[in-house]
Specification:
By secondary structure, the chain is α+β, with helices and mostly antiparallel strands. It is built from 25 helices and 32 strands. The structure holds (3S)-3,7-diaminoheptanoic acid (B3K) and zinc ion (ZN). (3S)-3,7-diaminoheptanoic acid binds next to strand 20 and helix 2.
Length: 878
């Protein structure tokens, strides 16, 4: 039963503590083919000071009540009211009581994948944000923390494995082919962290000993026959556990830690206490089926969910407005883990690239919202790049402002003071303020004010003095939040002609300078550096020390010099990528094919061949901004055809100039006969070789060598890279058809690889792709019921194919809108997520803008849309 829109808005200002406290929950869940019986006993009491006449109002969603008992006696029907989404019980005693609620569910019919559902025969749950209320009536809000004891019963044949949160307790036979298992979770938790999994599963086991000596049994469960593909995930888990102890002093706190990989899952993974449930995409890997990007993704998500055990589970959120308290902080932690495990510079570039590609358009468009929103209609639509990625940037700024030791002191205090709490952003910031004696009131504006501030930088040099004039400006956007000046930490360096940082001696001025960080706290400020022996090149906003749009009036000569000289690798990347981005932007606007500045081309080619640089970084440096990225730089009246043309011209120009050098570098990086290594260094070499292959195929204008590379590939990274180049650059070549066909035949039984096959074709920037996606949507292996498959095709097309999704005739929009309407009937959350691909519609030229508006308005006017999809459509249209 679908939850349609009632237009109700939830506001932060309406927050009230719960009138009842639930201390302990006992559940008995009997799983059968076709239905599940759930008996939940809530041990509750009235909260101190609460009105004794206030009834207990429990949340439900599409529930059917079977029976209700208070302290073992059936409750008189006059004392309660029940509907699928609410249970109200009146006249409750002043003393603690036990309320037993029985519900019957139909997990097989649950296509929304929230609550209890069955995926490929396996029973599993997803409760965040409000899925627990689809299992039982409950105070389903994160500030109600209880211990849980869960007894699962099922046919031993259908479900030999029975898992829930916490530590395993008693288990045994029930006769008649049925068995049971009890799980005890001693850590009070909110209901969104509840989980159960039951089914036929294979397992990969390991053990871990925490720093203080607690032995922990680790297990990763998969569908039958796939446990060997979980080895890298297990390794990443153990590395995460060690890292969190060393970096933050956080140890694991149960006897077991279980992970289950599921094929039908609405998102990446879920941090349920002691029982993480994962989309199998973020667990299962093999060199032949997974790319290096997949390996890095698994490492990140495994770490992220594990790190939630402290930041999210032991300290949770008071309400959903505080979501970034756990998500932004945990993303920051997983980014730091990857930086330590791999390359800090490469990781930072990847994160910034992702932030600009995902969060900036959100922050600058109709779906804009502050990192801590103040209102929502559907909370599931707020698991956004702003909450996660910008939220992580705010934590990173805090670390920059307070320094490593100050930041760690604040984190230590946060863990000590709030362990076991449902906390707020204010609680979090107060810990850093108290631990370092710093006033963070102005910093807190970052959580309230939506939008990307502009940071203008101007410089002038005379007589050994460099004056840097800074100005910040925040425009009011869709969220309508404030525009006060914020505290912007600006990391910088003064680069001398020898490529080393010069000593910076700031004169006292309006902005404070601490080491290599300028603290801009006013709308405008000048910083003066004196006693300089030569005019330095200003390398500003190093490592992207604040999530702002940098507008630096800097000469082309200085930028080209920084692209080669900046001792900060991030600074070199930024100089190159900005120069190239601006050239592409200008060519797109002019609609002409002005050749690229030869000095920029030379810098790119030289970079590719610079042996002192790690290959992964070189690959990032020579990457050509994607079409959506260029569209964002153009900003208004975007013509995707012009963008596509400009990008193609630039690729050909660099390819021709660099052909010889690129070939030599590519050959030198080859390691024939070497066995596959998933390590960062090997992945970096593959990344650079494949980036070069793309240029070489453009120089050749012939698919032959790429087809050869496809046939020779002995791993999925190289195979996918070659297949993508073939499909994108030579869509009509027989080699491309042959490669796609071989790819399909080799991997048709492997759903995760087949997703890649769908995406690959959906992203081809060729007008005929619309026919291809139409056909693919009718392919026997296509289904909207599996979120990964739906995302692979619809998401691949709508977010990964700017040229065809934004076709001038509006057909791309209409096809997507039709699929969203179909998907919404099955899975509103996934439909709503995919609908955000329309978010930049207003930045296109008037013809496309009108087509997009019509498609959106038509979809928004369809009857019976879910709250999830209506919310996104309404906000996108206003
Ligand atoms: N906390 C989950 C996401 C839940 C999304 C609910 N719509 C995974 C994560 O961020 O770690
Ligand atoms: Zn998370």
């Amino acid at each position: 039963m679908l939850r349609t829109d009632d237009g109700q808005v939830i506001r932060l200002s309406d927050y009230r503590p719960p009138a009842f406290r639930i201390r302990h929950v006992e559940m008995r869940i009997a799983l059968h083919d076709g239905h599940a019986d759930v008996e939940t006993t809530i041990h509750a009491e009235r909260a101190e000071g609460a009105d004794p006449a206030e009834p207990l109002v429990l949340d439900g969603d599409a529930l059917r009540l079977v029976s209700l008992h208070l302290d073992d006696a059936a409750v008189d029907p006059a004392r309660f009211e029940v509907s699928p989404d609410r249970l109200t019980v009146r006249d409750l005693p002043a003393v603690p009581f036990a309320l037993r609620i029985s519900t019957r569910l139909e997990p097989e019919k649950n296509t929304e994948l929230m609550g209890l559902y069955r995926s490929n025969g396996i029973w599993c749950t997803q409760c965040e944000a409000e899925g627990f209320r689809r299992i039982t009536y409950f105070l389903d809000r994160p500030d109600v923390l209880a211990t849980y004891r869960v007894r699962l019963e099922a046919d031993r044949d259908a479900a030999p494995i029975l898992l829930s949160n916490g530590n395993p307790g008693e288990s045994g036979d029930l006769g008649g082919g049925r068995h049971f298992a009890v799980w005890d979770d001693p850590h009070p938790k909110p209901s969104y962290l509840f989980a159960l999994v039951a089914g036929r599963l294979d397992v990969l086991e390991d053990t871990f000993r925490t720093a203080s000596g607690r032995p922990v049994d680790l297990a990763i469960y998969t569908e039958p026959g796939l446990a060997d593909r979980a080895a890298y995930a297990m390794d990443a888990l153990k590395r995460s556990m060690v890292w969190d102890e060393r970096r933050f002093g956080c140890e694991y706190d149960l006897d077991v830690f279980n992970i289950v990989a599921i094929s039908d899952f609405n998102m990446g993974a879920m941090e349920n206490k002691g029982l993480n449930v994962f989309n199998h995409k973020y667990v299962l890997l093999a060199p032949d089926t997974a790319t290096d990007g997949d390996y890095a993704g698994v490492e990140t998500v495994i770490a992220h969910e594990y790190f939630h055990n402290w930041t999210g589970n032991r300290i949770t959120c008071r309400d959903w407005f505080q979501l970034c308290l756990k998500e932004g902080l945990t993303v920051y932690r997983d980014q730091e883990f990857s930086a330590d495990e791999r390359s800090r510079t490469v990781k930072r570039i990847a994160s910034v690239h992702g932030l600009k590609a995902q969060q900036f358009p959100e922050d600058q468009g109709p779906l804009q919202h502050p990192v801590r929103p103040t209102q929502y209609r559907e909370i599931n639509n707020f698991y956004t790049a702003t909450i996660y990625e910008k939220g992580a940037e705010l934590v990173r700024m805090l670390a920059t402002i307070l320094g490593e030791n100050g930041f760690r002191a604040g984190m230590d205090l946060y863990f000590a003071r709030h362990d076991g709490d449902a906390a707020t952003i204010e609680d979090f910031l107060r810990c850093f303020a108290d631990a370092t004696d710093t006033d963070l009131q102005q910093f807190a504006l970052w959580y309230e004010q939506a939008g990307t501030p502009d940071l203008e930088v101007r410089e002038s040099y005379a007589d050994g003095r460099l004056t840097v004039s800074l100005r910040q400006n925040l425009a009011k956007g869709a969220a309508g939040t404030g525009t006060e000046p914020m505290h912007i930490p600006i990391r910088f360096g003064l680069v001398g002609g020898n490529g080393a940082d010069m000593d910076a001696n700031p004169l006292a001025g309006a902005a404070e300078v601490e080491g290599d960080v300028i603290h801009l706290v006013t709308a405008e400020a000048d910083v003066v550096f004196a006693g300089l022996s030569e005019r330095p090149r200003l390398s500003i906003l190093r490592d992207f020390s604040a999530p702002v749009t940098l507008r630096h009036e800097q000469s082309r000569e200085d930028r080209l010099a920084l692209a080669r000289l900046d001792p900060n690798g991030f600074g070199r990347w930024r100089a190159l990528t900005d120069l190239l981005g601006e050239a592409l932007r200008d060519a797109s606007v002019a609609g002409s094919s002005a050749p690229l500045d030869p000095r920029l081309v030379e810098a790119l080619v030289d970079c590719a061949a610079e042996e002192a640089l790690e290959p992964a970084l070189r690959a990032q440096m020579i990457a050509v901004p994607g079409e959506s990225e260029i569209g964002r730089l153009v900003g208004t009246n975007v013509d995707p055809e012009a963008v596509h043309g400009a990008r193609e011209d630039a690729i050909r120009c660099v390819a021709k100039a660099g052909e010889r050098a690129f070939r030599a570098v590519r050959d030198a990086l080859a390691r024939p006969g070497e066995t596959f290594g998933a390590d960062a260094a090997s992945a970096g070499r593959r990344a650079l070789r494949n980036a070069l292959l793309m240029f070489l195929s453009a120089a050749d204008e012939d698919p032959a060598s790429t087809f050869e590379a496809f046939l020779a590939a002995d791993n999925m990274t190289d195979r996918m890279a070659a297949a993508t180049i073939l499909a994108h650059r030579f869509p009509d070549a027989p080699e491309t058809a042959e490669a796609l066909d071989r790819f399909y035949r080799a991997f048709e039984a492997d759903p995760l690889v087949l997703d890649k096959w769908f995406t690959l074709q959906a992203t081809v920037p060729h007008p005929a792709t619309l026919d291809t996606v139409r056909e693919l949507a009718r392919h026997p292996k296509f289904t909207l019921a599996n979120p990964n498959r739906a995302r692979a095709l619809i998401g691949g097309f709508a977010t990964g194919n700017q040229r065809v999704f934004h076709r001038a005739d509006g057909e791309g929009y209409r096809w997507t809108a039709e699929r969203l309407e179909e998907l919404d009937r099955l899975n509103p959350q996934t439909a709503a997520r995919l609908a955000t691909s329309f978010r930049s519609w207003r930045s296109f030229e008037p013809g496309r803008r009108e087509q997009a508006r019509l498609a959106l308005a038509d979809l928004a006017g369809r009857p019976g849309l879910s709250r999830d999809l209506s919310d996104i459509l309404d906000r996108t249209l206003t």
